[in-house]
Design a protein that fits this description.
Largest sheet: 6 strands, mixed
Order of helices and strands: EHEEEEHEHEHEHHHEEHHH
Radius of gyration: 30 Å
Strand order of the largest sheet: 2-3-4-1-7-8
Structural class: alpha/beta
Strand content: 5-15%
Helix content: 25-40%
Number of helices: 10
């Protein structure tokens, strides 16, 4: 679906643009304001961290006065209604059908006010959130706030995978509609996480409090035995692996290695037996090899190995390789990847794909670590 509107005889329309973070808003505004009359202007919004960038631009022949601001990640939070929020207000099982609501928290109220004020002055809204399901969900949070202030907004989505000028210019000329299904998938995941996490956290904390006679009201440690639908099973794997390591009994073994050196290089031979746990047996075989140092090659097997074109890395594979080769934690890996993305060196890192975009310049693709 293409960005509509056509030509309007040179009369500019006002367009509100919203990015997921201030640095992206600044970068995209810099690209789009290049060679534009009036240049780039900056003013403060209600939030001192989320500036508003203004410039002129033309989208598919339509002159536009662009106002570009940002949020800082999710604009809204999901929580139970007040009557279910106190721990002893209901049985933990009741949280599975208790009513929930999505709202803008107090620390994001300044951002909400900026969006409302800017939306009232604009005819169109372009969403520049990150191109994943989480970004799509944040886009619909922005839509909800903006349409409460202006129900006549014409809403569009910019899709881009890298913060480079070519990608941004192409994206603004090929706008699409936001994807409600992607946003709904995140809403569902958030609700499942909330209901399971809250109910199990309350249940096991109160159960263990009674079992071990812990007074949560007077204990200065304020003990809460939290449960996360993703984190808790992962912790189980870690504990299981720990128990395996603790129960492992180290046992000595011996192996025989053979290397043949020539002017062309060295050939290393592997013993099919692998290793001996009996030193005497290993010593006997070794002595036999020493007494008969000449070997006869009875068979040569050739095996063809193919080297395939490099594929883009999924988030999980990126974290695994960074940990293996550079000993980087997952959090540090994604922080570095995010910084590289925001400076235009790599495409958006939080994706689960192994396909390059048709627009990717493969001459600049870096071969991944093997």
């Amino acid at each position: 679906m293409a960005y509509g509107g056509g030509r309007s005889g040179g009369r500019a329309i006002r367009v509100l643009n919203v990015a997921e973070k201030p640095s992206v808003a600044k970068a995209v505004s810099g690209f789009l304001s290049k060679n534009q009359q009036g240049g780039l202007r900056v003013r403060d919004g209600r939030s001192r961290y989320n500036k508003i960038f203004e410039f002129n631009h033309t989208i598919n022949g339509q002159p536009c006065h662009m106002s570009f601001t940002s949020v800082t990640g999710h604009l809204m939070e999901l929580d139970f209604d007040d009557r279910f929020r106190r721990w002893h207000s209901c049985d933990p099982v009741d949280l599975y059908h208790a009513s929930v609501r999505k709202f803008v928290p107090e620390d994001k109220s300044d951002i909400r006010r900026t969006l409302e004020e800017e939306a009232r002055k604009c005819q169109r809204l372009i969403l520049w959130l990150d191109c994943d399901r989480e970004g799509e969900n944040i886009a619909f949070e922005v839509i909800e706030v903006c349409t409460q202030a202006n129900r006549d907004l014409n809403i569009w989505r910019a899709r881009f995978s890298a913060l480079i000028e070519r990608e941004i210019q192409n994206s603004v000329q090929n706008l699409v509609r936001p994807n409600q299904l992607f946003a709904d998938a995140v809403d569902l995941r958030q609700e499942i996480d909330l209901r399971i996490g809250a109910s199990f956290t309350r249940f096991q904390t109160m159960f263990l409090r009674d079992a071990f006679m812990i007074n949560l009201a007077t204990d200065d440690r304020n003990l809460v035995i939290s449960y996360g639908p993703s984190q808790f099973p992962t912790l189980g794997f870690v504990v299981e692996r720990y128990w395996e390591n603790q129960s492992h009994e180290a046992e000595e073994f011996w192996t025989i290695n053979c290397t043949h050196n020539t002017d062309e290089g060295a050939a290393n031979f592997k013993w099919m037996r692998g290793h001996f746990f009996d030193y005497a047996c290993a010593a006997i075989v070794y002595e036999m090899c020493i007494q008969e140092p000449t070997v006869t090659v009875t068979e040569i097997k050739e095996q063809e190995k193919l080297k395939y074109l490099p594929l883009p890395l999924s988030t999980l594979e990126l974290e695994k390789r960074a940990s293996h080769f550079f000993h980087m934690s997952p959090a540090h890996t994604m922080k570095v990847a995010e910084d590289l993305y925001q400076t235009g060196f790599i495409s958006y890192p939080r994706t689960e794909t192994d396909r390059f975009s048709e627009k990717t310049d493969l001459q600049w693709v870096v071969v991944p670590l093997r």
